[in-house]
């Protein structure tokens, strides 16, 4: 373990530490007049009202909206002079949210990432290829400093530049790949196309995160790259990567509970018991520049406190299913994109590259799933293709109880990205990009 004392802390000793740190965090917010103080005052609360960890539930939530309202750096609880770095989230669902870090925050962050990387199996002997984008996104820099901290040799390739990714694998012989799961899939697909023997390469382990992915995708990455693929979770508003990560047993994501308090709430903000799926709410306990109290992440998961065989005693998150606001309601049935992914990949010949297109036709919600099929399976024979589509439609219906229109697409129809893959387009609320408009036109003409 990277920090055995912290990672095995549980029960009353952990709660005592969490409470002390929570109090210190609230005092800092109070003294700095950060916007959260006003939220507490609105509820008639002062720091003195928080007398035990149970009182956390009295505190108001922080939301993305609070970050937006205070754009760019209004959420600071320190003077800007103390900020040594800023990052920002990509803002797929609105304006960017900007986060600041003090020198201590940067050190804490590196420690947290070193912790999850060690849990996944990285050591100081490893050579890590970082294929996350370096920039405002927290993935590149976050993993970079954490892996350096634990003494691995870091190759900061950054995202994209596929040629470079392959030449680095060949020439520098990295043992660890760090990227989004969708980019790892893309590399494995390209490897096959180029007869580059990725399973036989020096890579042995993957640290993947920043977007939802399914067990089926994990299986494909593991066989395509010949590695053990682990999941890690984090978000800019709270710090970036390093909030939680799987150990090599791949049995839930260990939460750094000495730095964050995790709660699960239902749609009305009511706390749910362990094991129940709901929205993850996070409170930071050690952040200086931008502490957040009860931040509604929008991410759906559950918490378990059963012990993991690895010996770590922190609570664990189940794989993050997706964002609550990504949930599609199709004719009254709730569907998450990751459930569609899971169902699709259970059908052989289907590739993990797909787009869920939601539209409205004659007042009814319409769910289309466009998905690539394996090379060789794609045929010009419309009857053959339609039969395959129907087979997938029946499988989706059986698994998710929704009717979807499946449209098979040629291999490589969808754009590959080194960032977060876009898996859903909701034409009820979004403009279709040009390439998609063309596809829709082709689809309407009855072409496959
Ligand atoms: O994605 C931080 C990160 C970077 C995590 C690298 C892991 C690795 P944001 O850009 O602010 O930060 O996006 C955060 O991404 O609220 C989730 O919806 C999603 N997300 C992050 N990790 C996972 C994961 C980074 N392992 C948002 N599984 C979060 C599912 C994830 N979703």
What does this structure look like?
This protein has two domains: 1-323, 3-Layer(aba) Sandwich (Rossmann fold), CATH 3.40.50.12780; 327-442, ANL, C-terminal domain (GMP Synthetase, Chain A, domain 3), CATH 3.30.300. The protein contains twelve helices and 21 strands. It has helices spanning 4-7, 11-32, 35-42, 64-69, 103-120, 138-149, 162-172, 181-193, 215-225, 337-345, 382-400, 434-444; strands at residues 83-88, 98-102, 127-130, 153-155, 176-179, 205-209, 228-235, 240-246, 253-255, 260-265, 278-284, 295-301, 303-304, 316-317, 322-323, 328-330, 333-335, 350-361, 364-373, 405-409, 424-426. It has a nine-stranded mixed beta sheet with strand order 4-3-5-6-7-8-9-14-13, with helices on both faces. A four-stranded antiparallel beta sheet has the order 10-11-12-15. The termini are far apart. The structure holds 5'-O-[hydroxy(phenylacetyl)phosphoryl]adenosine (DLL). 5'-O-[hydroxy(phenylacetyl)phosphoryl]adenosine binds at residues 89-90, 132, 137-139, 142, 209-212, 231-236, 240-241, 297, 299, 320, 323. 5'-O-[hydroxy(phenylacetyl)phosphoryl]adenosine binds next to helix 6, strand 7, strand 8 and strand 12.
């Amino acid at each position: 373990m990277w920090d055995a004392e912290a990672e095995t802390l549980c029960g009353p000793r952990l709660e005592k530490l969490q409470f002390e740190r929570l109090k210190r965090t609230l005092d800092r917010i109070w003294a700095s007049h950060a916007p959260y103080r006003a939220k507490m005052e609105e509820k008639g609360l002062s720091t003195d009202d928080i007398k035990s960890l149970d009182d956390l539930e009295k505190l108001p939530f922080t939301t993305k909206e609070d970050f937006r309202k205070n754009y760019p750096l209004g959420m600071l609880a320190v003077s800007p002079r103390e900020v040594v770095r800023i990052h920002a989230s990509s803002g797929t669902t609105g304006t960017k949210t900007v986060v600041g870090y003090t020198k201590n925050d940067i050190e804490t962050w590196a420690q947290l990432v070193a912790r999850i990387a060690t849990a996944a199996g990285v050591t100081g002997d490893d050579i890590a290829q970082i294929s996350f984008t370096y920039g405002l996104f927290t993935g590149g820099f976050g993993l970079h400093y954490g892996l350096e901290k634990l003494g691995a040799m870091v190759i900061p390739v950054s995202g994209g530049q596929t040629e470079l990714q392959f030449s680095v694998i060949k020439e520098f012989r990295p043992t660890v790949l760090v990227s989004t799961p969708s980019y790892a899939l893309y590399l494995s697909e390209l490897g096959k196309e180029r007869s580059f023997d990725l399973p036989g390469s020096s890579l042995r382990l993957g640290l993947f995160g920043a977007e939802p992915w399914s067990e089926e995708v994990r299986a494909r990455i593991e066989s395509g790259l010949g590695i053990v693929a682990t999941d890690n979770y984090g978000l800019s508003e709270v710090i970036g990567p390093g909030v939680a990560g799987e150990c090599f047993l791949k049995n839930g994501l260990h939460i750094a509970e000495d730095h964050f308090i995790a709660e699960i709430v239902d749609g009305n903000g009511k706390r749910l018991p362990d094991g129940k799926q709901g929205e993850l709410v996070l409170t930071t306990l050690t952040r200086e520049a931008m502490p957040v109290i009860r931040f509604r992440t929008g991410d759906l998961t559950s918490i378990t406190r059963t012990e993991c065989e690895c010996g770590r005693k922190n609570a664990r998150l189940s794989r993050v299913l997706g964002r609550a606001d990504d949930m599609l309601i199709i004719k009254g049935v709730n569907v998450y994109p990751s459930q569609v992914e899971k169902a699709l990949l259970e059908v052989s010949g289907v590739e993990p590259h797909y787009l869920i297109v939601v539209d409205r036709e004659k007042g009814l919600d319409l769910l289309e799933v466009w998905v690539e099929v394996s090379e060789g399976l794609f045929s010009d024979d419309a009857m053959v293709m339609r039969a395959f589509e129907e087979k997938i439609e029946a499988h989706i219906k059986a698994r998710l109880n929704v009717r979807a229109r499946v449209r098979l697409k040629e291999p490589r129809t969808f754009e590959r990205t080194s960032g977060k893959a876009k898996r859903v387009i909701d034409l009820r609320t979004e403009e279709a990009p040009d390439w998609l408009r063309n596809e829709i036109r082709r689809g309407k003409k009855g072409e496959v």
